[in-house]
Each structure stands twice: as C-alpha cells, then as structure tokens.
C-alpha cells in the first residue's frame, strides 16, 4: 500500500468514526499507535471533519448572532490547529528525507507534501458527503444525478491528486525535488499582528 492509499484509508476511517455520533463536540478517539504517521493523519482529518460541520452550522440563516460569533472563533481556532498539524506533518517528511541530498538541478515544488495531503483530506470529505447526496432517497432524481456527476469528477480528482502526491514524494526521495518548508505565519489570531486586536490593546 503506497502513501496516499494509506492516507485515504485513514481519512475515511476518521470520517466514518465522526459520523457515528455526528457531533462537533465529540471527543476524538484516535485508534492508531502513538507517534505513528497514521495517528497524525487521523488527527488531521478529524479536525477537518469537525470544521466541515461547523461551517455547515454557521450558515444557518436563523442562527443566533451570539452563537454565530462563538462558532466563528471556534472555526478560527480550528484553522490554527489545522495549520499547526499540517506543518507537523511536513516536519515528519523533513525527518524522513533528511539524509537525501537534492541534485544540483533539483526543482522546488509549489506546495509541500503536507499541504497536498491537506487537500486530499478535504477531498475525502467532499467524496463522502457528495456520495450521501447522490444516494439520498428524499432528494429528487435530478438532484441525485447531478450529485453523481459531481462525485465522478471528485473521484477522478482523487486519483490525480494521489498520483501527484506519490510522484512528489518519489521525486524528493530521488533528489529531483528539493523539499523546502515555510511556516504559514497566520496573522489574524496573533494579538501583535492583527491591527484590530493590537489597537484595542493600545486603547486600554
């Protein structure tokens, strides 16, 4: 089983486990061994799955404004955790490839392995939920057909993205691509970088 096959299997296990309770407040019960890559991937997708449903909830037109504000802050915190975990996965790959010397003409990819894996995790959620819609008995036949067409595209995208990730990892391992990581440096959660936050602090 190659890397993306493993990741896809883990992502889908996380999604299935979440939907047992289908509750954004449910506690994660990670079934994989400590320090294993599978455990990291499961935790990554769990964050994505919870956030997927938080985004659904906040789009309720009848939501209480105070609840919406709290949800927005929860989503912001979730985004930060997601970013931190993606960067942790990149650190895992950096350690894995630390003894690889890139060739003099090695290229630099537009995204790191972990950010490509991030897209694969979100894609697993899209496939899961589009499949539900394509098979939802309460929906019209037209709706199901439209969703099936979209699902077919998503599944093709899954194959293409998986191939690309595996090729990227092979290229890094062979020295054809230089792995270079930059921190995301998100600013909106930082009291010293978000002007709305630091200006409030100056007014006190």
From TrEMBL:
Protein name: DUF4254 domain-containing protein
Species for this entry: Chryseobacterium lathyri
């Amino acid at each position: 089983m190659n890397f993306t096959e493993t990741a896809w299997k883990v992502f889908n296990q996380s999604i299935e486990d979440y939907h047992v309770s289908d509750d954004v407040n449910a506690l994660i019960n990670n079934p994989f061994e400590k320090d294993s890559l599978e455990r990291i991937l499961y935790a990554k997708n769990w964050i994505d799955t919870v956030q997927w449903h938080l985004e659904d909830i906040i789009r309720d037109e009848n939501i209480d404004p105070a609840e919406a504000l709290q949800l927005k802050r929860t989503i912001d915190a979730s985004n930060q955790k997601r970013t931190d975990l993606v960067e942790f996965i990149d650190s895992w790959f950096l350690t894995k490839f630390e003894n690889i010397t890139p060739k003099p003409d090695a290229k630099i990819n537009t995204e790191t392995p972990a950010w490509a894996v991030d897209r694969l995790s979100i894609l697993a959620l899209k496939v899961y939920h589009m499949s539900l819609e394509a098979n939802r008995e309460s929906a019209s036949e037209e709706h199901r057909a439209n969703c099936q067409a979209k699902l077919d595209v998503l599944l093709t995208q899954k194959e293409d993205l998986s191939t690309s990730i595996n090729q990227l990892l092979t290229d890094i391992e062979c020295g054809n691509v230089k792995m270079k990581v930059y921190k995301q440096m998100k600013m909106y959660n930082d009291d010293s970088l978000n002007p709305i936050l630091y200006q409030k602090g100056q007014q006190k």
